[in-house]
Write a structure and sequence with these properties.
The chain is of the alpha+beta class. It folds into four domains: about 5-155, ibrinogen binding protein from staphylococcus aureus domain (ibrinogen binding protein from staphylococcus aureus fold, Roll); about 175-235; about 260-390; about 400-510, no CATH class. The protein contains ten helices and 20 strands. It has helices at about 5-15, 65-75, 175-180, 195-205, 220-230, 235-300, 330-375, 380-390, 415-425, 455-470; strands at about 20-30, 30-35, 40-45, 50-55, 80-85, 90-95, 110-115, 120-125, 130-135, 155, 310-315, 320-325, 400-405, 410-415, 435, 445-450, 480-485, 490, 500, 505-510. The strands form five sheets. The chain has a six-stranded antiparallel β-sheet with strand order 5-6-7-8-9-10. Helix 4 (about 195-205) packs across helix 6 (about 235-300) and helix 6 runs antiparallel to helix 7 (about 330-375). The chain is elongated, with a radius of gyration of 35 Å. It starts with a helix and ends in a 7-residue tail after the last strand.
């Protein structure tokens, strides 16, 4: 049920308020009907995914079938005094005055969330607006079902988050003109109270294509919108053909949303990688300073007292003396060698990243282009883009990420401690090869060889995967041990993923994925 439809139901109720209520009936386990004197039954059907609120003259009967319905019948009593809607959202509140009697019943409110598969009916304590303490809920929603929003008896109710859309009841010609370039089927993105069905009905009444922008015909669209506010009923033709078109639009919007998230993550990842290039470039200045200080230490090593923490040495350019910090436990030459190593590492990192910079910029431009395409893409284009992205994803197995060595052997890489343990102790066979970085936490890498020997290119490939999926990622000359699975075991009482191994050999590789 869509926002304008709810608005029409509440408008029809307003002249009868305050209204005397004559009790509840419950035709089924997800329907509550409130009998209103002189009007009929106000029916709240809260079965997902198609909840509805309507007035029925039909005589409805039925006893409570759930604790929630029994609570409604016993405690939600008195005159219906106020009904209101949250903007034109699918959330309404009904205020009840309570009643005096043998057992007095306090004033209460019912909030009906007419929100598709998340439909719910809640009883709140008396108060104003849409916030308050939940006394009883038809469907309790815990953090295990929805980590963003919980509904629990005794908790505080918060309505759906606020949004900014045009109100079709007060929309001006200037505002409608601004929408003229937007396809009529997408006006609901900017106009409150419209859903798929009413969008299709809007196009029918305007006599315009559902998927085309009205452009100069915007006055027709505005007139149709105002007519829809007055009478938000949907014709039989729209219920069939129009609904199909609306369903296509709904599917396209859902697909667009699903595609936008991984693309935006891709943009963020590439942006961060380009920022790494910038930081590595800045590191060249530190490398130059390290080399200069190392040269000074090598030149004046004979003048530096052992155990010194600072050495004041004359600059090569004659600009004066320069203080150089030292590690006291190292000799002057060892301090110099440490600086040379650090400088060389920074330079190597920059060179490696700088080589990838053009590729990263091209990939970032392509990702930005794909994000831009999403907004205007039709369903067919979106489906093709989804298939393309699916093909580009690395193949994953039930246990670990899957790769293939140059020689055609399957490689499995654990993505967490549980997968590491599974690969090593359950999936791997005794003669398969096992890889792990030496001295760094990281993934277990399993190469399934079926007992065959592993050629050197395949050994280096798997070793690079192990280095790239460890804390040594991005470093150069990473030591990676490898051995047969039969030489790997889990110590008694050790946590998942912790192992001992013997009969290993070691190779040195860069901590960059070979796929890169």
């Amino acid at each position: 049920m869509e926002g304008l439809m709810l608005d029409r139901v509440l408008r029809d109720l307003q002249p009868h308020l305050p209204a005397r209520t004559l009790g509840w009936a419950f035709p089924d386990e997800t329907t509550a009907a409130l009998l209103i004197e002189g009007l009929g039954n106000l029916v709240l059907s809260y079965r997902p995914p198609q909840p509805v609120l309507f007035v029925s003259r039909e005589r409805l009967r039925g006893d409570p079938r759930s604790p929630f319905q029994r609570y409604l019948a016993a405690r939600v009593r008195g005159d219906l005094t106020v009904v209101s809607q949250l903007k034109l959202d699918r959330v309404v509140v009904l205020h009840f005055s309570g009643e005096s009697g043998f057992v007095d019943q306090a004033p209460t409110r019912i909030v009906f969330e007419v929100t598709g598969r998340n439909a719910n009916v809640l009883v709140l304590e008396d108060g104003e607006g849409f916030n308050g303490r939940i006394v009883m809920a038809a469907r309790e929603i815990t953090g295990s079902r929805n980590r963003f929003r919980t509904i629990r008896t005794g908790g505080q109710y918060s309505p759906p988050p606020p949004y900014e859309k045009l109100d079709p009841r007060t929309i001006s010609e200037a505002e409608a003109r601004e929408l003229s370039g937007l396809p009529l089927g997408r006006w609901r993105e900017r106009v409150d109270g419209l859903g798929p069905l009413l969008s299709a009905e809007l196009a029918r009444r305007a006599g315009l294509p559902f998927s085309a922008a009205p452009e100069e015909a915007w006055p027709q669209a505005l007139a149709a919108l105002r007519d829809l506010v007055a009478d938000p009923t949907v014709s039989e033709g729209v219920m069939h053909g129009g609904a199909r078109e609306a369903a296509r639009t709904e599917k396209a919007e859902a697909l667009r949303k699903a595609l936008r998230e991984p693309l935006e993550k891709r943009v963020t990842l590439l942006t961060n990688q380009l920022n790494d290039v910038t930081r590595a470039e800045e590191g060249l200045e530190a490398a130059a300073q390290d080399r200069e200080e190392a040269d000074l230490l090598m030149a004046y090593a004979h003048t530096i007292e052992p155990g010194s923490s600072v050495a004041v040495l004359p600059s090569f350019d004659g600009s004066g003396e320069r203080p150089v910090s030292l590690e006291p436990q190292l000799s002057a030459v060892q301090n110099a060698e440490k600086r040379y190593t650090r400088a060389r590492r920074r330079e190597e990192v920059y060179e490696r990243l700088a080589e990838r910079e053009p590729v990263l910029r091209a990939e970032l431009a392509e990702a930005h282009a794909r994000v831009s395409q999403l907004e205007q893409a039709e369903l067919g284009t979106l489906e093709a883009l989804a298939a393309q992205l699916q093909q580009e994803r690395p193949e994953k197995s039930q246990y670990g990420a899957r790769f293939t060595t140059p020689g055609g052997f399957e490689v499995l890489v654990g993505r967490n401690n549980k997968e590491n343990a599974t690969l090593t102790h359950r999936v791997g066979r005794s003669m398969d090869y096992w890889f792990h970085t030496q001295g760094y936490p990281g993934s277990h890498v399993l190469v399934r060889t079926g007992g065959r020997e592993l050629p050197l290119p395949d050994i280096l490939y798997a070793a690079q995967l192990a280095a790239a999926h460890s804390k040594a990622r991005g470093s150069s000359n990473v030591a990676v041990d490898y051995t047969r699975i039969k030489f790997v075991w889990r110590p008694k009482g050790a946590p998942a993923g912790q192992v001992h191994y013997t009969d290993q050999k070691t190779v040195w590789v860069d901590g960059v994925s070979p796929e890169a």
